[in-house]
Amino acid sequence: MSDTTLPMIGAKAASTIRIVPVILSGGTGSRLWPLSRASYPKQLWSLVGSRTMLQETARRGVGAMFDAPIVICNNDHRFLIAEQLREAGIENARIVLEPAGRNSAPAIAAAALLAAESDPDAVLWIMAADAVITRPETLEQLLPAAAAAAQRGHIVVFGMQPTRPETGYGYIEAGKPLSRLPEASMVAGFIEKPDAATAAELVASGKYMWNSGMFVFTARTLLKEMETHAPVVLAPVRQAVERRTSDLIFQRLDPASFLSTPDISFDYAVMEHTDQAAVIAGDFGWTDIGSWDALWDIGEKDADGNVTQGHVCLESVHGSYVHSDEILTAVVGVDDVVVVATRDAVLVTQRSRAQDVKKIVARLQAQGRKEAEAHNRCYRPWGFYESLIQDTRFQVKRIVVMPGEKLSLQKHYHRAEHWVVVSGVALVTRNAEQITVHENESIYLPQECTHRMENPGRIPLVLIEIQTGSYLGEDDIVRFEDTYNRT
Amino acid sequence: MSDTTLPMIGAKAASTIRIVPVILSGGTGSRLWPLSRASYPKQLWSLVGSRTMLQETARRGVGAMFDAPIVICNNDHRFLIAEQLREAGIENARIVLEPAGRNSAPAIAAAALLAAESDPDAVLWIMAADAVITRPETLEQLLPAAAAAAQRGHIVVFGMQPTRPETGYGYIEAGKPLSRLPEASMVAGFIEKPDAATAAELVASGKYMWNSGMFVFTARTLLKEMETHAPVVLAPVRQAVERRTSDLIFQRLDPASFLSTPDISFDYAVMEHTDQAAVIAGDFGWTDIGSWDALWDIGEKDADGNVTQGHVCLESVHGSYVHSDEILTAVVGVDDVVVVATRDAVLVTQRSRAQDVKKIVARLQAQGRKEAEAHNRCYRPWGFYESLIQDTRFQVKRIVVMPGEKLSLQKHYHRAEHWVVVSGVALVTRNAEQITVHENESIYLPQECTHRMENPGRIPLVLIEIQTGSYLGEDDIVRFEDTYNRT
């Protein structure tokens, strides 16, 4: 690799460069089970600080330097992502939906194709939604140089100054600095996740950086390099973008085209082949939140080196990460463990074995256990529900409907429902009637009645639903009309 | 100690001796938290086999050799114990209620005083409700000799052949065999819980047995020895027995008298002082279920030496005990741990630190955490209830009422209640009305209405109660009438 390419200074001077943030939010984070599950993955949780990792990532791309962001995510997460972006004050995102994850190369290709539609020279900044950056200001200072290198035709990767011989990351060797842009160097080589001895050598040499998975390039460069090195990825993604459909505020990639794309990372598909790879190094406090031990690494430790969150009680415990949503979790006389308790699943592991959590998740999936993929709380565009108890002939749910939202008009063949409003107000459609149900009032919905629930008020509507019947599956539902296009 | 006492052959020959089983069920078993809690302690759980430890213990005293048993327990557990005994087919027990636990010496004194009322020479067999005996037939074969020794005026303790150098038990040294009763020996000495080195020596010597805490004596002998060695225990207990009251099927010891008794074990109060102590040794498979490691010890192990119960998934785990009521519990890459998950509390500890669980419980008690003492499910004489969700202004409960049972007639100042019957049938009193509520029907009980729920049917009544109001504490209740004397 060399810097022989002539500088391709774009139409805009570096000082006025505008960048399109691209947020990849397609992962399911199974190593962070039981908190992270396919139905509500890690980037949507606030594991560090008060914002979720998705929100933190998206906020990094807010400011005068940035155009509207592109967020690429799974179709199933669209309402969650839209709500989290809205909550974080980001109203202009283009939310692009994948029918299923195909790793980073197809997602990045889709972002470049979409950006190129309005400006083939657009500068894109690719960020994964599941990393923590503790010094974002340092990163921001590196961005103009990255954009300048991008405009010369480079694909820039941010290299993070290593702080320990981590075996879970890829490493980058920096080569010759770019002429007239000494902040950036050509990439001399990539090293995949090394073993412990190699990692120690790499860090000791001082010549290697962690591959942060954050890239900066122009749409034009990226598409040209993909055409050369990964045409089997680019062609179907191009078709998926061309055939995309709009759904409310979302852009849905054509499922058949997108699913024919190989599952491949951007590093494998492009970075290890292109001779345009450049690196800009810095100490911006990047950590990939790949497994529970990463959260222990970056967490604030007590005198015994423990990181705790939630209802936790420790006795003679050292070097451990203990997290509990609501169940009281007591740990006695163990060292270097991870304990995570959620309402329906508990994980206990040695911290050094945190990578193996995915094995358990795979086994649970093979056994068809719902806890492998879904949480007890199910998010919907109108709010959420959770099962409080389920028996053979009855089920009790808490349902929360956000102000102004409404469920679909529906009926059930096998179950009747009692609704008791415990907070807020409900406007209920029951066959031809419309009934307002206030706090501390109830309504009965017999089997096969057509019904709908809606929150006409200004505060969340909370109601308790008691279902009775011989079959209580979620698939006993006939939807007649739905605000969120789910019929 | 010597065997100089002349044989005191009683009125009955050994072959026709009848024995009064006495079951001590006063403990709270805090080392088996979070399953065992003061409100529902370990002896009431089926931790080994399908019967509870109380039921297993009580069944040992059923047969031609035995009179009606005496069960001594905490006042708070009376309905649970009565129900478990009924379930185990034991209808003739005398259930004696302590206002609070005062250790074994007062409880044993109370049993002897009660038995002496009908027969001062009654032979009593004292058993703790929280031990497991895997070879009860061996124990039964030793009973006639124990009864014969008891009739000669001895206080006999069963000594268990040690199988390992256990530091958690007391040891007994056997002395000279009794004349004409070689199965029994005088006790040469007691050794309290030894350190590991001493325990190893004791076991290697072959001369020491574990103190099983099971005793056989006549009421007359016991009361005489207590008069001599523990008059400060006997006097208040005698008063508590004399002033006892009957309550339904229970005998309630006079609380003020009983509470003035010192908290002291029978070993300290009597056995270490009397010169009538004798021991009968055997290998009857006795284990005190004092802490979680005992359950691992006696449990059936998989190929990796793990004992599991419930919804458990293990990956690279060895020598561990993992128990889960209902929450899926996954353990990865740890050895020799105990993991116990209940609906509202999780425990993780090194197996060797299982004794320290009581420290955590003490801390939780000091913090006023309800999980330290009470379970989410609360048992009542009419059935049970459990909170499914609690918020500031509402609470949802599942209530189960057994056939023929009824709750008290009551009212609440601060909350209204919606009841939805999901199984069975309810007869509801609401002020002057009596209303039958069938499955899939509901009824509303406004604040301050006088109400009562009763199950007139043949199957358990299950209903979902939704409470709304500004104060939802259990103490917002005015009871007008109660079948179970709780007004």
TrEMBL record, chains A, B:
Ranges where the Mannose-6-phosphate isomerase type II C-terminal domain occurs: 367-482
EC main group: transferase
InterPro entries, per database record: GMPP_N, Man1P_GuaTrfase/Man6P_Isoase, Man6P_isomerase-2_C, ManC/GMP-like_b-helix, Mannose-6P_isomerase_type2, NTP_transferase_dom, Nucleotide-diphossugar_trans, RmlC-like_jellyroll
Residue ranges of domain Nucleotidyl transferase in the record: 21-303
Molecular function as annotated in GO: GTP binding; isomerase activity; mannose-1-phosphate guanylyltransferase (GTP) activity
Domain named MannoseP isomerase/GMP-like beta-helix: residues: 311-364
Keyword set includes Nucleotidyltransferase: yes
Catalytic activity annotation: alpha-D-mannose 1-phosphate + GTP + H(+) = GDP-alpha-D-mannose + diphosphate
Pfam family, any one: NTP_transferase
Keywords, alphabetical: GTP-binding, Isomerase, Nucleotide-binding, Nucleotidyltransferase, Transferase
EC number: 2.7.7.13
Domain of life per record: Bacteria
Gene Ontology BP, a term: polysaccharide biosynthetic process
The family this protein is said to belong to: Belongs to the mannose-6-phosphate isomerase type 2 family.
Protein name, UniProt field: mannose-1-phosphate guanylyltransferase
Organism ancestry: Bacteria, Pseudomonadati, Pseudomonadota, Alphaproteobacteria, Acetobacterales
